[in-house]
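Pilot study result, target chain (291 residues):
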Amino acid sequence: MEFPNIKSSPDSVGACVGLDVILTADSLNGEETNFSWAFFTIPDTLTGNPTSRYFEDPGTNKYPFEIDVTFSPKNCHKIYYDTLTVSAWTPPTAEFKIEDADGLVLTDAVEGINAGADAYFSDMSTPGHGILTKWIWMFGDGDIDTTGANVTHAYTTKSGFITVTMGVSDEYGCSDTTTHQILVLESLKFPNIFSPNGDGINDKFEPWERQKSGYFLKFEMEIYNKWGGLVWKRTCESPNCPNYDDENFWWNGKNKQGNDVPDGVYYWVVYAKPESEKGDMILNGSITVVR
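Predicted structure:
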């Protein structure tokens, strides 16, 4: 019998951590009855065709092996030799830290950062076999950054304890993710004068830089005249409290009946329960209406 020129082919030769490789002997003549696979550097023997084995040694390694093939004529067999090259890359281990502008570490800390202030996110990942090439930052407020290993982000649409997720991958496509929390603190600062005259400038009594003030579980604002009479009131509860997207949320200089109040000094009180649960806020002050 003329022996066929049998060749072996793997289905895959590279993966992160480890992989099952399916080995198939092909170019057969149809008279093969048994296949015995033996790797010289691995103490085991595989049978069948195809067959499979798990490889987990890190890095790129060569595995010489032989296939002892038995054919239908009795005691007729031949040994074929080959080498399998497998790459099992160790993935990176993702890690990062969060700091404020003064270098105070905010990662999973009780210290917080004010809403609207810049927070600095730095990659601290440990590479595996490959060079780190991609980063994705999911800040927990809907914003995503893929620009690099070190990024800056300010929280203007959410406050309280926020979970940040970072994913990292290397040149081989191996990846890992991890999460940490950052505490974003609420702040409310109001002007002492506004002009609700409809010119589109300073028409509402609202917080300075209102998109940077944070969010609350409960919020209530009351406006009183100089005689102590309630002129206007607004309340809300989470989510989306206060509703910064509602142009009618803040006081526009009208009373409860919808009429313009006279120019002069009014008094305001704010009761607020922050999402950060760092203590209820009770604020008050005066506001001068000038049209």
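One observation from the pilot: The first strand starts at residue 7 and ends at 10. A full batch analysis is planned for the follow-on phase.
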